[in-house]
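Subject: Protein record for review, amino acid sequence with backbone structure tokens
Why sent: The fold of this protein is of interest and is recorded here as tokens.
Enclosed: The protein record, placed directly beneath this head.
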Amino acid sequence: MVGSIFTHIDHFVATVTFSHPKSNSFPAELLQKLIDTFDQLSLNDQVKIILLQSEGDKAFCAGASFDELLQIDNETKGKRFFSGFADLINAMRKCSKLIVGRAQGKAVGGGVGILAACDYCFATEASDIKLSELSIGIGPFVIAPAIERKMGIFALSDLSLDAKSWKTAYWAQKYGLFNRVFENKRDMDEGIDILVHQLSQYNPESLKEMKKIFWQGTEHWDTLLIERAEISGKLVLSDFTKNALSKFRS
């Protein structure tokens, strides 16, 4: 149940589709495949734009693999686990190509972090978001910088502290996570086709320079996000978190 990453390149647009049977969540191996995909596409002269999407009609992404979270029993494993999304966000940040996100459904935890790391994002009305980490004794430490950069400190604190509540797609649009929200997938995909086609016609060097401007001031994230992963890696071993996670063990 590792899941899959599929990439299709057509007319300078690379469509990257990730999939996992458990609500498109990410075990470590699948995360690494997506990181490698961004690194490769960043160097591909036949690509100007990356469209990132998940498979299916329901969840966009449920975040990191809960099965792997339940297996953490020491700080080294904990840091390694939470470093997965740190490395992914950094790969998206440093990728030379603009990344357009397509959210067809709900996103939780790391899934919200992925959307925040996109340079432009489409969504449907079904794309509610939630950060549930505090409810199990950890926190969205790794993805917080990406969310704050995109949505501001108010939205980050609201999402983080109200950890059991879903926020609507229109709320997420109001605070900058989504650029456009559509009633259904068909209308969303039409909007995506129009924008992505337009972007694919532009000067690739101009697009690359705009990406640099969007991400100015984040050069320290290589260190920052790993430091945040270490915090989560320690907290996941706390009695509070162990007790919370015990409810999910089969």
